Amino acid sequence: MNIVLNGDTRQLPQSATVHDLLQTEQLLERRVAVEVNGEIVTRSRHASHALQDGDVVEIVHALGGG
């Protein structure tokens, strides 16, 4: 299936979840906010939220500094 991630097309397996996407993008260890089709997906739902063909996903990660 194809999704749009932060404006770029990505191809994923049909059964991919938000967790799978974060793993593929090497973002599992980072603090991120995930939005799918305009709705926030909380961290507790990353493993169970199945992505669908054509989904628009935005991932934003926090940057520390001081």
**Major beta sheet summary:** 5 strands, mixed
Average predicted confidence as pLDDT? 94
Q: How large, in whole angstroms, is the Cα Rg?
A: 11 Å
The overall strand count is: 5
Spatial order of the strands forming the largest sheet? 2-1-5-3-4
Helical amount among residues, as a percent range? Answer: 10-25%
Give me the strand/helix succession: EEHEEE
Distinct helical segment count: 1
Give the overall shape. globular
What is the strand content? Answer: 25-35%
Ends distance? 41 Å
Structural class by secondary-structure content: mainly beta
Low-confidence stretches: none
Oligomeric organization of the protein chains: single chain
Q: What's this entry about, in short?
A:
The protein is mainly beta.
Care to describe what's here?
The chain is mostly beta strands and 66 residues long. It has a five-stranded mixed β-sheet with strand order 2-1-5-3-4, with no helix packed on it. Strand 1 (2-5) and strand 2 form a beta hairpin. It is globular. It has one helix and five strands. The model has no long low-confidence stretch (mean pLDDT 94). The longest helix is centred in the N-terminal third of the chain and has 7 residues, at 18-24. The chain has one helix at 18-24, and strands at residues 2-5, 8-11, 32-36, 39-41, 56-61.
